[in-house]
Structure formats: C-alpha cells, structure tokens
Amino acid sequence: KLKVSDVKDDQFDSLGNTLVLQGWVRTLRLQSSVTFLEINDGSCLSNMQCVLDSEVEGYDQVESGLITTGASVWVQGVMVKSQGTKQKVELKLNKLVLVGKSDPSFPIQKKRVTREFLRTKSHLRARTNTFGAVARVRNALAYATHKFFQENGFVWVSSPIITASDCEGAGEQFCVTTLIPNSHETADSPVDAIPKTNNKLIDWSKDFFGKPAFLTVSGQLNAETYATALSDVYTFGPTFRAENSNTSRHLAEFWMIEPELAFADLNDDMACATAYLQFVIRHILDNCKEDMEFFNTWIDKGIIDRLSDVAEKDVLQITYTEAVDLLSRANKKFEFPVKWGCDLQSEHERYITEEAFGGCPVIIRDYPKDIKAFYMRQNDDGRTVAAMDMLVPKIGELIGGSQREERLDHLEARLDDLKLNKDAYWWYLDLRRYGSVPHAGFGLGFERLVQFATGMDNIRDVIPFPRTPGSAEF
Ligand code: 4AD
Ligand code: MG
Q1: Domain 131-158+229-461, CATH
Q2: Which domain of life is it from (predicted)?
Q3: Quick one: which ligand is closest to 448's CA?
C-alpha cells in the first residue's frame, strides 16, 4: 500500500506511473478549468496535491458538493511534476472515489483552531498538522528508545501496572477497585461516578480480590529484580500519579522509560542517561526532518539548532550543594526561598537551566537524603544520597535517577527511619540478601521528552488522550 510519504519527493522515480492513494481531504479549490484537491494520509506532514477536471471519473461528487474537508477518499492518477512551487510532484487524477463523506459540522476546517479547542476534540485532533507531527515524532522517539537499549544489550522487561507497593513512597497512588456484574445498587455506593452500563456497581470493600492494590507509580522496583538477574534491563510503559497538579508538565497517566543497570554506580547512570538522550534526539533530527522543520517554524523557533547541540555536547553536572549556592547568589527573587535541604521547585530548576547555564540540560546530583526516596544509596557524608535529576529548559525535570542502596543493613535502617513497613518489602530486601550488586537506574517521563523534542508547551498536547484532573472521557 502506497503512502504519500513514499512518493512526495519522488524518491522512487514514480513520475509517469499510475498510483493509488487513500486519505482525508484537507482542502478543495475549484478554479475555472481545474480543481485542486489536497489529501493527507497521515504518513507525513505533506499533503498530496491532486489535480482533476470534469473528465475525471467520480467528478460528479465534486460537483454535488460531497468532497469536503474531512471526507475520506480513494484516488487514482498519474504522477506528474508539479507546476506549483509548494510541492515537487502532484497526482493528475483519472478516478476519484468518495469513501466516507464528512458532515458539514466537521470541527477542524481550514481556518486555524486553538490547541485549547482541540483538547476538547482529542478524537479528531490527529487530523491537524501539529498533532499529526507530534504523533509521528512521539512514535520515532519510542522506536529510538527501544533501538538504543536493544543495541546496547538491555533486556526490555514488562513491569506490572497493578501493584501493592508505592515505589516513590509519596502516597500518590490510584486505588484499584472491583466492578461486580449484575449486583444491586446500595445506598452508600458511589455509583454515580461510573456509567451504569450492564448494571455494574463498585464494591469498595473488595478492592483487588480482597487485597488492596494500586496503579503503579513506577516500575523501578520490579526492574531491579530483573537487573539483578539479567544485568541491564529497561521498562517502557504507562505509570500513574494521583497528584492533583494542573500544570503544563504533569499528567495523571504518563509513560515512563526506566533503565536499570547492574554492576553500575551513579556515574554510569548519568553517562547512560546522557547517551540515551543524545541518541534519541539525533534519531529524530535525522529521521523526522519534515516534522522537525515544522516545529522549528511554527512551534518553537530555533529548536533544531538547540537540539543539535544537545545531541553533541556533554551534559553539565553540578551537585545539589553547588546548585543551592548558585541559587542563593542569584540576583532574583524566588517565590520559594532556597536553603540547603529544600526540594528544588520548578522556578529554581528553570533558573538553573535557562538562566545560569544558558538553555542547556544540566544534571544535579547528590541531593539531601531527606527529600529523596528510601531506596537511594547513601553517600559517605551521611546527609546526601547518590541521586541525580536531569533538568532541561522550559520543562524542568526530565529525568530522575539514582544509585540504589545495595547494602542490606543500610536499606533496613533507612526503612526503619522512614517508618516504612519492612515486611512489605521482603522481596525487595531479598535482592540484597542473595547476590546483591551495586546498581543504578533512572526514570524518564516520555511525554516530557516529547515536549522537549518538539517544543510543545503543554504536556496535554503530546499524548493522544491526556489524563489530567477531570479529563478521562474517552
Ligand atoms: O522522579 P520520578 O518520580 O522517579 C521515579 O519514579 C523513579 N522510580 C525513577 C527511577 O529511578 N527508575 O519520575 C521520573 C520521571 C520524572 O523525571 C519526570 O520526567 C516524569 O517521570 N514524571 C512525570 N511526567 C508527567 N507527569 C507526571 N505527573 C510526572 N511525574 C514524574
Ligand atoms: Mg523526581
């Protein structure tokens, strides 16, 4: 099956050949002697310009007004050099078939529509240039992710979505409950929250077959079990956070890439994160040229040059202590004052990458142990852990990672300190009981990567169906 991307630049010497294409009508322009029909099949940003006159089989559908924006069509024609300057080639039609007409209410007409409006039309927004380009670049980043890890000997591990453990210990988990088919409504059942199809009701007491269970916030702990058997592994799947954050960089459901490296320390971890980022950015610059040009022109001017730098230059590294020092000397009033021990807020992260370091990614390492998760390896100073965050301009934290505490006694002591239930972590502690090794890993929020790579402002616009407080319609 031929796609517009296969023929638009005449790579296959298709001039003079008769081709069939299928797609959706973007525009129809009727001129006195010829009609121009632009169709897009999603394979690339470019439309295929089709030229037709009244002799073409199926032209009556143009005359009767059935070929409108949004309609799906099947076209057959001869590939010719285009007279216009916008495209190299065009299709001189000999046959046009209307596959599905588009109701005049089609909301995405040629006139510009806002991204806010399109968020209310997530089932149709992929038919716009911007969302088509985002979907293709997102796909290329996913492909490059697997390519990078596979080529470097990592094994992809599927971590569970339903789990009883809270990896980050932040209590930001969604609870899993059970739907009981054909039961009867009880007075205190919060049934209004769910559609009443098939008479299914929530029974809050049952949870996950009689046990509590949650949607995972991170696959890290599971990845550690496989890293301590297969050496280097990675996960790539959906994760969930019940944080009620309405920002341009938080989702309730997002995809995370979590490599876990065995026989590795924090330096190996930072080197892996940097090499990974450089690889996937290089991949889209080389393989998504047309879409990247589009982002460069319409969404974020200069993004191609900035990403080219990222793909080539090493990422700067500073310690948390140095970062706090830099922020306290900054000639700037922050909403949240900075002092050693505080968590860095997004205003601080943005200052560091955007102002202090002129728009480059920066890694901050060795955070105070009290603001980080229980599993991070304690440094010898007794007050910091071997953690690292990679920050990027406009977004802030793109990557969070650490060397894991591999010493059983240290880990048990830390769980006690934090009043976490050691019994619940019996299996995690077993990894330290049986052949423990130094190991490290990180988590990268895939949507933040897509934002970084495309320049899109809002995280809701880089995932097909964003899940944020109040939005889970379809
Ligand atoms: O820093 P986080 O919470 O780290 C972890 O979950 C570790 N267990 C990862 C690991 O070491 N394996 O999350 C990792 C990354 C963040 O840097 C951010 O990019 C992204 O996940 N992230 C979110 N992305 C979108 N919406 C949210 N609500 C996010 N929360 C975290
Ligand atoms: Mg983090």
Answers
A1: 3.30.930.10
A2: Eukaryota
A3: 1
